[in-house]
């Protein structure tokens, strides 16, 4: 039996044990709310803008009180970020981590619907080489703080990575993590498996196209439904979009790193710039609208990737606003769906109906396990973003007394066989 066949069997076995998909009142699509600008609207006005595109999840890059309060009692799920600069302090002092959670998380509950804490952003590939060693200790301390406060089943701890953590990345079935990062990545994967938190990745098909526009088909990068599929010669899987290929590359890398339990991959950032410098191929408003429109449609289907079709794709678009103070090329300041004055940066032409979104996991983290190896690669998928996450899927017994009564009646009538309590996605 080939290594890939063994991987698929292990994957299918895990998915059979995973909870079934169910409807959710919250869209599987989220959006990153970065604030690296001096002309952005006040946080109080932001929830209204978010609602106009039907997005039910928002990722913050810090724990700004005004931003968190703005989303209180809106039902919009939040990812709250811990900035890179805070990692050393919280990694070295569990008491500081507990104090941080009390002040920046617990103080806003239950009005604010906080589902994730993201510890830093792209720390493992940061230019600050002293920072990575603080990542896991900070995550452990924050998770312990949540546990001590009884919040660990409500709020998960994770971090967002650049695709530059991959050494081998193409074709997806040969993907592996960079060898120099494995001593850091493997303990992180153990943390995710133990706590049930997902592995967040910042994935940008745009960067693959911008680096090699003659070698990467534009339709394939833009998630166009009619794009010519690319076949992974090793697995035989067909990829109709580059984003799917990037995500599956991460799944294969996780397996190659020896993860023994399922770790779900979620996209904490992805987007397309609406403007760029002369040498930034494809950075146009038309392409940005096409990519984000196709992305929203793709995720709204509630399907997975070719490798893990039963694990619904969960994505945070980048970004809500154009941010005029971001450094770098012109494209960096033009990822927003909205301009700073709140008007659309371009006509998206699509709005999510998050009241009917499907595919949310019924409880617990879902993913896969296995083994893989191979060669080939590039680091051009990475981006340094100033503002990244996603949602935490957890189990709880019943939503309210009415739901409990309905469940009880179904059992008594013999119309529903239930082996465990129903998990409700946030």
Automatic annotation (TrEMBL):
Pfam families according to UniProt: Glyco_hydro_17
Keywords: Glycosidase, Hydrolase, Membrane, Signal, Transmembrane, Transmembrane helix
Domain of life, per lineage: Eukaryota
Signal peptide range in chain numbering: 1-23
Keyword Protein biosynthesis: no
Keyword GTP-binding among record annotations: no
GO BP: any one term: carbohydrate metabolic process
GO molecular function annotations of the record: glucan endo-1,3-beta-D-glucosidase activity
Chain segments annotated as transmembrane: 401-424
Catalytic reaction(s) noted: Hydrolysis of (1->3)-beta-D-glucosidic linkages in (1->3)-beta-D-glucans
EC number, UniProt record: 3.2.1.39
Family recorded in the similarity comment: Belongs to the glycosyl hydrolase 17 family.
Name of protein: glucan endo-1,3-beta-D-glucosidase
Lineage of producing organism: Eukaryota, Viridiplantae, Streptophyta, Embryophyta, Tracheophyta
Gene: LOC120108394
